[in-house]
Design goal:
With about 230 residues, the protein is of the alpha/beta class. It contains seven helices and ten strands. It has one domain (about 1-225): P-loop containing nucleotide triphosphate hydrolases (Rossmann fold, 3-Layer(aba) Sandwich). The protein has helices at about 45-50, 75-85, 100-105, 115-130, 145-155, 175-190, 200-205, and strands at about 1-10, 15-30, 35, 60-65, 65-70, 85-90, 160-165, 195, 210-215, 215-225. The strands form two sheets. A six-stranded mixed sheet has the order 6-7-8-3-9-10, with helices on both faces.
Length: about 230
């Protein structure tokens, strides 16, 4: 589903050059749940952004679903992000002036989907994360865990094949973090391929593979479980 080859990412200013990623090679199969760990500033979020086509590598190639993404023009790349990828962020990124239901509908606004279908799909996504009774509420009326559930519903409303989660439990207490991780595990069992950046070793151990980064370099890639969602 995701293949990164010889990935390097360099950030340059007029006075300094920072190597964020160096010679990273990762192949993630369909149905895997992969966690990425490492100290702050080691390149985890940069790596996730490159996987999610939100950033470009300075060197190397990125393949999604067997196709090299540098073959796509900007409009096709945006369509690929919208249709194949779902994003979950640590800080939720909900729009406070929109209801929960309207927040979840947002990714569908960029598709040729009718208003009725958007509403039905958003309702289904919220039911899946246990928030069917909060559809008309606004983000300021929700707890942190509920906001993250809304963010997950928004990520899955378009039925993406790949979910990329950047510290999805980082702002939550342990009980709520476990609930969010359980939701992600259930989505994985239903067939979604998931890549999750985390600082929490206990959360990482509940995934199939653990990739560790240090100073922008991939140092380990450990198989934790072979029980993939696809049964492979």
């Amino acid at each position: 589903m995701i293949k990164l080859q010889n990935i390097e990412k360099v950030y340059r200013t007029s006075s300094i050059e920072t190597l964020a990623l160096n010679n990273v090679n990762i192949h993630i199969r369909k149905g895997e749940f992969v966690s990425i760990m490492g100290p702050s500033g080691c390149g985890k979020s940069t790596l996730l952004n490159i996987m999610g086509l939100l950033d470009e590598p300075s060197k190397g190639t990125v393949e999604i679903g067997g196709k090299t993404v540098d073959q796509y023009h900007d409009k096709a790349l945006a369509r690929l992000r919208n249709e194949k990828l779902g994003f979950i962020f640590q800080s939720f990124h909900l729009i406070n002036d929109l209801s929960v239901l309207d927040n979840v509908e947002i990714p569908l606004l960029y598709r040729s989907t009718s208003a009725r279908e958007r509403r039905e799909l958003a309702q289904q996504a919220l039911e899946k994360v246990g928030l069917s009774n909060r559809m008309k509420h606004f983000p300021k009326e929700l707890s942190g865990g509920q906001k993250q559930r809304v963010a997950i519903a928004r990520a899955i409303v378009g039925k993406p094949e790949i979910i990329l989660a950047d510290e999805p439990t980082g702002n939550l207490d342990s009980a709520m973090g476990n609930e969010i991780l359980s939701i992600l595990q259930n989505l994985n069992k239903e067939g979604a391929t998931i890549v999750m950046v985390t600082h929490d070793e206990s959360m990482a151990k509940r995934t199939h593979r653990l990739i560790r980064l240090f100073d922008g370099t991939q140092v380990t890639d450990s198989i934790l479980s072979t029980n993939l969602a696809t049964g492979v």
